[in-house]
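Hi both,

Apologies for the delay on this - the queue was longer than expected. I finally got the zinc ion-bound model through. Below you'll find the protein sequence and the ligand SMILES exactly as submitted, and right after that the structure tokens for the full complex including the ligand.
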Amino acid sequence: MSWLTDIMAKYLPKRGTDLLVPVTGHPQDLEPLAVYDIDPEGWLRGPGVVHVPSARNSALTTPRREPWGIVWHYTATDLGTAKSLAKRIVKTPGPNDRAASWHVLLAADGTVYQSVSFKRGSWHCKEGRLGTHRINASTVGIEMEGHGRPMDFTPALIENATRLVVALVAEYDMRADRVDLQHGNLDPQRRDDAGVHFARYVLPGILEQAYHGRPQPTDAVVTAQLRGQTPPYPQGD
Ligand SMILES: [Zn+2]
């Protein structure tokens, strides 16, 4: 378990061990959460993580080619479909296929499928911007298996979402007001994911874990980030 030792050495000093407790609203087991690591190429490492690389990716336009935020989605498919969804986006889209992809798909059974490096953009939300940057060129798109119903947010999915956000926030210094973006808010005419239940009852506990004890970036840092430029960016979803 040398990867775990490396992760502990990398993150625990700056996060504090008090982070590693179950998310708010989680069932009453007190097992500490294992942590995830993100390698220099932007790939997640840890228990349950499966890499299924997708050709459907584009450059980020942010200054250091690092993601600034997270957009949350649900798949609008039944539980048990995550693996086939991940396989479906491996190749570039055919003529009758939507040009859609995402970085990570969290399955209800606890599997975490990563399709695109966090240092590249995926095609999860064609509307909206962060500063001058298109959403697809500046954020991580996270899909959650299911329809956004309370029953879809299994303890395993919530735990993995928490591990993922903790790792992303630490690795890329993401601001709290950029990791709670929802597809339905960015494209309200077409979408309503990740839904009310997630926003009210799941995400707050995840953010509490990710930001407890961590200072936020200063306004000067944020202002500098917002000066970036954005090229045309046509991809979906
Ligand atoms: Zn969506």
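Main takeaway for now: Residues 73, 183, 191, 193 surround zinc ion (CB under 6 Å).

I'll put the files on the shared drive as well.

H.
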